[in-house]
Amino acid sequence: MQKMKHWTPILAATFLAGCTATTNYYGKDAAAESVTANAAPSIAPATAQDALRPYYRSLQRVMPQAPKGVSLASDTVVSRIAFGSCVNENRDMAFWDVVAAQKPQAFLFIGDNVYGDTGTTNAAEIPTLAASYRKLSSRQEFARFRLAIPMMTTWDDHDYGANDAGGSFAFKERAEQLFESYWGASDEVRSRPGVYSSRIVGPEGKRVQFILLDTRFFRSDLARIPYQAERPPLGYYIPNHDPDATVLGDAQWKWLAQELNKPADLRFIVSSTQVITSAHGYESWFNFPKERERFYGLLAQKNIENAILLTGDRHSGGFYRDRVEGLRRPLTEFTSSSLNFAFGNGDSGSREPDKKRLGGFWSVPNFGQIDIDWATRKVSMSLRKDDASVIETESVNF
User: Fold this and answer.
1) Phi, psi angle pair for 256, to nearest 5°
2) What's the CA gap between 360 and 366, in Å, rounded?
3) Which CA distances in Å does 351 have to 236, 243, 315, 348, 361?
4) Which of 19, 88, 162, 187 is the most buried (most CB within 10 A)?
5) What pLDDT digit, counting tens, does each position of 253-297 carry?
6) 74-to-61, 200, 375 alpha-carbon distances in Å
């Protein structure tokens, strides 16, 4: 995400000195552990997470919860979904009723679902993140939406806990605990580091796979341009060519390959940050070109001709398309951002020329709507304003 001050949390090693490291992964059910920090030999913590786990075990276990929601039946024939990103919990929420009126069968909330790093005190328990979740829960429009429309979620930086943060974020296990508790994550998600998830819905012949990636928990540090007196107009990150740099991490890469082996008639792959574009220096997979090539290569290896990418983060929306070596059909990406926190009032595409973008780059409050016609095997995608009026459309055959 752009236009917000970057900060790096400083691990409070002094007050944690002497705390015992544990080999158990804290981000899951630490309350069920029978071995306390004082029962094990005292050794120097190897990582920020090792040092912080004893402290996190001491915190009150009551955490914010999302309002009661409804679930999506596994045998649903999916014909309409909606998605969006970047919701400031303090701003206008009328869009929730607008999206609900479109009657999507599911809504994908794909990151920056709250702005929990705003006003942060850099405290290890991330109190601002918990407060943001509680504020979102207090909004009646959101509560109504939850009662009507099933949701699937992943995170981006502002609900991860720090602007533009990745795997080196010291407090990421606390952020994960808050996320999984708030959204009622599955046992499978809770059993491993990160918040990535997948689900297949629909009968044979009409199976839709939703893959929601975690592009934060494992991601390597971003590479920055050298200091300049004048800030570049389109961001300050450059490609990280370190051969060991990663976006997804080894375990998530293996998981993704296994998910793509599963039979599905149509797939939606969610990345909180953009994938196809190379036209800006903000966050995107262009920051990690070898990882993007690995992603494309995996799609080609698995012969995935039926995938559409859904992305957010940019506080603007648009459509992208690119040829991927090894695939017969071009790959399409649909970016929708922000639901209530746009950084403009119209088409800002001239500021960011991009041959891979199909139309404008719309810096207005927006959401994405996707309609599936199983008879013609066609996906119709529409970028819509917060009053549901159509901005642009694209379609894909599958």
Assistant:
1) -60, -45
2) 13
3) 16, 32, 14, 6, 9
4) 162
5) 999 999 999 999 999 999 999 999 999 999 999 999 999 999 999
6) 32, 7, 20
